[in-house]
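Reviewer 2 asked us to include a model.

Predict the structure of this chain.
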Amino acid sequence: MDVSETRKFFLESFGSEPDVITSAPGRVNLLGEHTDYNGGQVLPMAIDRRTYVAIRALPDAKKSRIVSRPVLTSDEFDSRKVRASGQWWDYMTGACAAMSAAGTSLPQFEALVHGDVPIGSGLSSSAALEVATALALAQVVGGSVHLQALALRAWEVETRFVGVACGIMDQFASALCTEGHALHLRCDTQANNQVPMSDTVLIFDTRSPRYLRESQFNKRRAECEEALVILRRRDPSLPNLAAALPDEVRDSDLPPTLKKRALHVAEESRRVEALVTHLAQTGIVRGELLYESHASLRDNYECSSPELDWFVENASGIEGVIGARLTGAGWGGCAIALGSRDSLSQAAETLSASYREKFKRIPITWLTHAAAGARIEQSSI
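Predicted model (structure tokens):
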């Protein structure tokens, strides 16, 4: 999928040329899961799957219209009076609400969305749509385009409009990643830098959907907030849960479940720091950090699934695979493996056949690399 196909669909849908076409990628998180909303460190990279948004302003119209392709769905709404509907287009209309709340006067518009970021797989299809929409609308109103500010606006859409209490990682990765690099992000300060990332990554979509609004995601966040309150009784200066030392968590009087959640967050953020340091020094991923991360997500955060555990266990036994783990929030979705391109290509075939036999479900696999973040693809403004 590309810009020309997006333009073609827009012409077919509306009979006119768009004013602007933007795109934003999905992301895969190499390391640092469930640390972002706890003030910790993360290391995501953009993938070579993108969501495209084409928009044309309609200054004299009374309604706006959104169309998706190639699966045809649509909605009409007033861009100045947006309400959440519980439908997929909330990720787009929410951007209108965020801009209006910030004092920006929006025209009505017609928009087309189209892309190949898998939905419900933990690869941030929602963030890609939010970021691409925010970038397109910023162009339409003639505002300055500052990608970090747009990432924060997209995050507001997800948390305040859609209602998923996530951290900033997904939107920052979709907006800010650069080709050939992973994004090292400190979620407490928003400080970030690009880390060279040349390894090939195998993404294994288990095709076991996970819907965050229906999962235990918000419950985990509440548990982390409760753990922080208790830890602050001993150390009132503790800025966030990720700042707690692992030994401090182990020695605390946290209830067993909260202790497991807090221990994952404390150790996971430090695994990210160790991997970033190792990449900077050697350019090589430390695979054992990925395995440690998955074990913690499975046992301490309890957000894995039988399919994800099966993948990691079986991938680890394939020659040339250096590391594997679930990626995204968990409870289904995708896992990743790193290694040589030839090894990963062979692993994809072997694992897919075995997975289909065991789970009676056909997975989707592909090899990807560290791709570019959000960009303006075409503009007549």
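The first strand starts at residue 20 and ends at 31. The chain has a mean pLDDT of 93. We have added this to the supplementary material.
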